[in-house]
Write a structure and sequence with these properties.
Elements lengths: L14 E6 L1 H4 L3 H6 L3 E7 L3 H11 L4 E2 L2 H6 L5 E4 L6 H10 L3 E4 L7 H14 L3 E3 L7 H11 L6 E9 L19 H11 L1 E13 L12 E12 L9 E7 L8 E8 L2 E4 L8 E6 L11 E6 L19 H4 L1 H14 L7 H19 L5 E2 L23
Parallel strand pairs: 1-2, 1-4, 2-3, 4-5, 5-6, 7-10
Antiparallel strand pairs: 7-11, 8-9, 8-15, 9-10, 11-12, 12-13, 13-14
Length: about 400
């Protein structure tokens, strides 16, 4: 493609993408290789052995052990960052300042000051920033969106989200990680479906960290449970909404669970109790004659997702992990560059979804005090939408 100073639609040819961090990035590199609008794919990882192995497996010749060296090379239109959380804020700023578009794994950052810095960096650069939130592009989210749009849910009433994951034995930088700093997987579906932001949060910590679990973040909790007050830009969807979110990373003897449940006046959709199981769908009927309470039908559902939103070349990846979200994330990021528009989860939306967790952890440390969440003036009207497919799934 052209040099890395372009700012408008990428009409000069395919875009070249660097994938940084192969612990998770190895799942994304082949999707970029398959995307019809992507040219070269390069890999960056500080682990030279892993870098060489993934490069050989995918027949990728452009390999770098250092992000600085990769960004010093000419070309490379976009970078997908999948490095440890503590590095996100500085590396995103570095990438944007180099004149490249940047996609980043969640969370956007772990402090409100860094969220402000990243928004400012994106504005200065004129390049795209996208937070690659898997929950927003999962088959489960797509199914919930269908139920909302066809009236099955009625008006939205309430949300619940959980992310329970034992981090014992994970790399040292995860030690004592504040659970709510990783809130986006459990909270973003509620915010996207309701087209809302969080006004305030009250959060309590449970199970004070034992000395062997305390990390660089200092004293904290193994589990944090928050009540998030939402404000929607579309009151026809629902009003006075609350999301009840629980996250746990330490000191909880429970198997992995990461998901959301959505409740409406006419129906509901619940995440399975066990990972990999079916979701449960509920539909409310009338109050039976002489009875009390509305009749409720329930059934198991395994959502199929929406592969038709993808180019044909990417549909084979739609059965993958994180609810089949990976090809949708790649396609949205690439499409936003090609079309010269902001991605759905741009810097302001990402901050809107990330800040509530930062404020929730602050609330937990203050014994549940209500904390106001900043308003980042994000465009929430279309955050749950996807452009209609055209040309065999391209956008």
């Amino acid at each position: 493609m052209s040099d890395n100073t372009h700012g408008g639609p990428a009409d000069a040819g395919p875009i070249d993408v660097l994938v940084v961090g192969l612990g998770f990035g190895s799942a994304f590199a082949p999707i970029y290789q398959a995307h019809p609008a992507v040219g070269r794919v390069g890999l960056v990882d500080s682990n030279a052995e892993r870098l060489a192995a993934v490069g050989a497996d995918l027949s990728i010749a452009d390999l770098f052990t250092d992000l600085d060296a990769a960004l010093a090379e000419p070309g490379w239109d976009a970078v997908h960052l999948l490095t440890p959380v503590a590095l996100h804020a500085e590396q995103v700023q570095q990438i944007l300042a180099s004149g490249r578009h940047c996609a980043s794994a969640v969370p956007m950052a772990t402090s409100l000051d860094d969220l402000d810095r990243l928004i400012a960096a994106q504005q200065r650069s004129g390049k795209n920033y996208m937070m690659m939130e898997t929950a927003r592009y999962s088959r489960e989210f797509f199914h919930a969106r269908r139920l909302l749009r066809d009236g099955t849910l009625g008006r939205l009433s309430y949300f619940r989200g959980e992310h329970l994951q034992n981090l014992d034995g994970f790399p040292p930088y995860w030690l004592g990680f504040p659970p709510m700093h990783y809130v986006t997987h459990a909270l973003s579906p509620a915010l996207a479906l309701s087209r809302s932001r969080v006004e305030s949060v009250r959060c309590l910590g449970s199970s004070r960290l034992t000395p062997d679990h305390i990390g660089v973040a200092g004293d904290g909790f193994g589990t944090e449970a928050g009540l998030f007050r939402l404000r929607s830009v579309d009151p026809d969807i629902g009003d006075d909404l609350v999301a009840n979110i629980t996250l746990s990373f330490f000191q909880l003897g429970r198997s992995y669970m990461e998901g959301f449940s959505v409740y409406g006046t006419e129906g509901a959709l619940e995440w399975p109790q066990l990972e990999g199981g079916p979701m449960k769908e509920f539909r409310a009927g009338a109050v039976p004659a002489g009875g009390r309470g509305r009749a409720i039908e329930d059934g198991d559902i395994r959502p199929a997702g929406e592969p038709d939103l993808l180019p044909i070349e990417l549909r084979r990846f739609a059965d993958g992990g994180h609810g089949g979200s990976h090809p949708h994330l790649v396609h949205e990021f690439v499409s936003s560059i090609v079309q010269g528009r902001s991605p759905r989860v741009d810097a302001r939306v990402a901050a809107t979804w990330t800040a509530p967790g930062i404020c929730a952890h602050t609330s937990a440390l203050q014994g549940g005090q209500e904390i106001a969440v900043p308003d980042y003036d994000a465009d929430l009207a279309t955050v749950a939408d996807d452009a209609d497919p055209a040309g065999g799934g391209g956008r």
